[in-house]
Specification:
Number of strands: 2
Distance between the termini: 61 Å
Largest sheet: 2 strands, antiparallel
Order of helices and strands: HHHEEHH
Structural class: mainly alpha
Number of helices: 5
Number of domains: 1
Shape: flat
Length: 157
């Protein structure tokens, strides 16, 4: 194998080795979690305001705005979900996740409540709210852009 081929193989091997992803961000200390929770509250109330604005102005008659309204609804559920999960694990600390192995984790509650562990597990699946919200937002903005573009072309031409 040539030297460039060896170098490429070494770089490809280095990139393929597993490394910690650090996909879960913990908010240590009171000020970190409080500011983070306030951000979720602000986002939640903003989405409630957006939904009411779309309804009051009857913008939901357009498909794009209706899709954006669905996005806002899913973002509201996502924020309620994450506020609750953060409250349980970071603020009152009744739940924690123990890593048992590379592929196994365990939800541990201070009261040994299996119901709380199951509820917390489902709260941590917050992407089931967030991903559809982002998809609805994208489709709504895309629809608004498609609905707007032909009118601009006709008025300028």
């Amino acid at each position: 194998m040539t030297r460039p081929g060896c170098l490429f193989s070494l770089v490809a091997l280095a990139w393929s080795l597993p490394a910690p992803a650090f996909a879960i961000q913990l908010h240590m200390g009171n000020e970190g979690i409080i500011v983070h929770q306030l951000g979720h509250l602000f986002f939640l109330f903003s989405m409630v305001g957006l939904m009411f604005t779309i309804n009051i102005k009857h913008m939901n008659q357009q498909k794009g705005w209706r899709l954006i309204q669905y996005a806002a609804l899913f973002f509201i559920f996502w924020n309620l979900d994450t506020l609750t999960a953060h409250f349980l694990d970071n603020q009152i600390e009744v739940v924690r996740i123990d890593t048992l192995s590379f592929t196994r984790m365990q939800v541990v509650t201070t009261s040994d409540s299996s119901l709380l562990a199951v509820v917390y597990y489902f709260l941590k699946l917050d992407h089931l709210w967030c991903v559809p919200a982002m998809a609805f937002l994208y489709k709504g903005l895309d629809r608004l852009l498609k609905d707007r573009t032909p009118r601009q072309g006709r008025s300028e031409g």
